[in-house]
Amino acid sequence: MSVTVFIDGAAGTTGLQIKERLEGSGDIALLRLDDAERKDTARRREMLNAADFVILCLPDDSAREAVGLIENSRTRVIDASTAHRTADGWAYGFPEYEPGQRALIAQSKRVANPGCYALTSIAILHPLIKADILKPDWPVAINAISGYSGGGKGLIAAFEDASSASYTQAPFYAYGLTLAHKHLPEITTWAGLSHAPVFVPSVGRFAQGMIVQVPLALWAMAGNPTPGDVHSALAAHYEGQRFVTVAPLEESAAMTQLQPEALNGTNQLALYVFANKENGQAVVMGLIDNLGKGASGQAAQNLNVMMGVPEETGLG
Fold first, then answer.
1. Candidates 3.40.190.10, 2.50.20.10, 3.30.360.10, 1.10.3720.10; correct CATH number of 116-290?
2. Which one of 3.20.20.70, 3.40.50.300, 3.40.50.720, 3.10.450.50 gives the CATH number of domain 3-114+295-307?
3. Which of 74, 84, 141 is nearest to 111 (CA)?
């Protein structure tokens, strides 16, 4: 028996990709609004209440408004915005986060889809804190670079549309220079940190793909953990997972570069531990498609979990 799904914000970058992933499923009937109806509150309310599942691909305030328009206890929601990622009553939509997280998502009426930077950062930090390799009050720093598609239509125009007032020919640039990026509360909460990390994001002249880097001064950390300890904690945490993998140390040691676009078009997150034993240093890097497991792929994965169908349905 098929279920009905309404994507509120289906014309945006994430919404379009979610729609593409769901259109081939015989178990899903997509409810749609005409372009002229997308901002009609009455028609949106009708669709939000008619659907079995709603996926919100909206700015934060609009996402909160959409949830408020749902007047029944039946419709289940996946919110891809930042609005509810640390909110009470919302399950965090990262099935690999903890052994019981899938069950929590499966039974929840409200699921917050993680952010791309945040999911990758949390995937690195949470297992290390849980294994007591990294202390919650450690001064964590995170460096990251994303493809420009993660910034929506405005940033896409800045890199692709020469007629746009914001058009840039820069190969990449750093931003978030006030150190107050909107993903910080999400990272701090779900990683289990006592303090917000120093997070320095940047955007490059490529559409999709992302690398998140967490440097570790092992020599200064309690217990003097080795690169092997770091790797073992990550590998044990994600053992048997379909969409999160940890590269063997030998593989990482043989690499000379990591390309941000390598996992584009997939729902994969790959973690690597690069190290220099003599200097007592390591860097854990996460590679992800910011529109895949960092957005639309993750939403589709969460929907599969909530529907009780095979988790990999429609995903690469």
1. 3.30.360.10
2. 3.40.50.720
3. 84
Pairing verdict, β 28-31 and 3-8: parallel
Q: Which residues, in sequence order, are CB contacts of 229 under 8 Å at separation 6+?
A: 133
Average model confidence (pLDDT) across the chain? 95
Cα–Cα distance between 313 and 304 in angstroms, integer? 7
Please confirm, yes or no, whether 116 is among the known catalytic residues: yes
Contacts for 42 with CB less than 8 Å, ≥ 6 apart: none
Phi and psi dihedrals of 123, rounded to 5? -60, -30
Per the CB < 8 A criterion, the answer to whether 304 and 313 are in contact is: yes
Tens-digit pLDDT profile for residues 161-189: 999 999 999 999 999 999 999 999 999 99
- For residue 257 the two structure tokens come to 């570069």
Residue 12 structure tokens: 């945006």
Band (pLDDT 50/70/90 cuts) for residue 194 is very high
Which of the following is catalytic: 111, 116, 216, 288?
116
Q: Where are the alpha helices (DSSP H) in the chain?
A: 13-23, 41-50, 60-69, 101-107, 116-130, 152-160, 184-191, 227-237, 249-254, 297-307
Measured between its terminal Cα atoms, the distance across the chain in Å is 24
| Delimiting residues of CATH 3.40.50.720 domain(s) in the chain | 3-114+295-307
- d(CA 5, CA 32) in angstroms, rounded, equals 9
Tokens of 282: 């390591």
Please check the confidence at residue 235 and state whether its pLDDT lies above 60. Answer: yes
